[in-house]
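Supplementary Methods. Inverse-folding protocol.

Structures were first reduced to a discrete structure-token string of length 178. This string, shown here, constituted the complete conditioning input.
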């Protein structure tokens, strides 16, 4: 049985190559067994739009670890399974951007799942925004809070698995090294 590392990131600006927060929910044996959340000092500027959306500003991340410091902990978690995100192209791109920005070598490729992609198969004909799916399944959500978003995405993945969807057939590889 696979271990799924469901994660969500918030970003400080439109460049989307740094994170200001990360949330992780680990699924093993069809249950959420661990949750992790941290603010991240992106060591760059915040756009007004991102601050309005996430509620995170430069003052909030003062004293938070930067990505290289946090990566020592994140790598131990993310190495353990298949990465999962809602609209995974965004979160995977931010992760790659952070690794590149700090010249951190991890793996050439990583396996991942996108719950939007799975949802289009499992629930055709409906919108697959995170908040819409949370309403559909009755999942609590504090939208654009990385901890809440990762937990909600994990709950959605579990709903798909419980309904009989073979989510592993949706696993793709993300290229981290050019």
């Amino acid at each position: 049985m696979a271990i799924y590392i469901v994660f969500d990131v918030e970003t400080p600006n439109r460049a989307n190559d740094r994170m200001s927060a990360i949330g992780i929910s680990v699924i093993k044996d069809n249950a959420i067994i661990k949750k992790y959340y941290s603010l991240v000092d992106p060591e760059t500027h915040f756009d007004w739009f991102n601050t309005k959306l996430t509620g995170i500003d430069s003052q909030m991340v003062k004293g938070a670890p930067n990505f290289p410091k946090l990566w020592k902990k994140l790598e131990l978690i993310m190495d353990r399974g298949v990465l999962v995100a809602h609209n995974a192209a965004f979160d995977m791109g931010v992760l790659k951007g952070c690794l590149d920005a700090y010249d951190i070598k991890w793996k050439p490729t990583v396996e991942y799942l996108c719950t939007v992609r799975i949802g289009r198969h499992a629930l055709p004909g409906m919108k697959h925004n995170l908040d819409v799916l949370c309403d559909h399944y009755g999942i609590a959500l504090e939208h654009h809070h990385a901890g809440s978003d990762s937990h909600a995405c994990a709950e959605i993945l579990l709903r798909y698995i419980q309904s009989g969807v073979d989510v592993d057939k949706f696993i793709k590889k993300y290229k981290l090294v050019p």
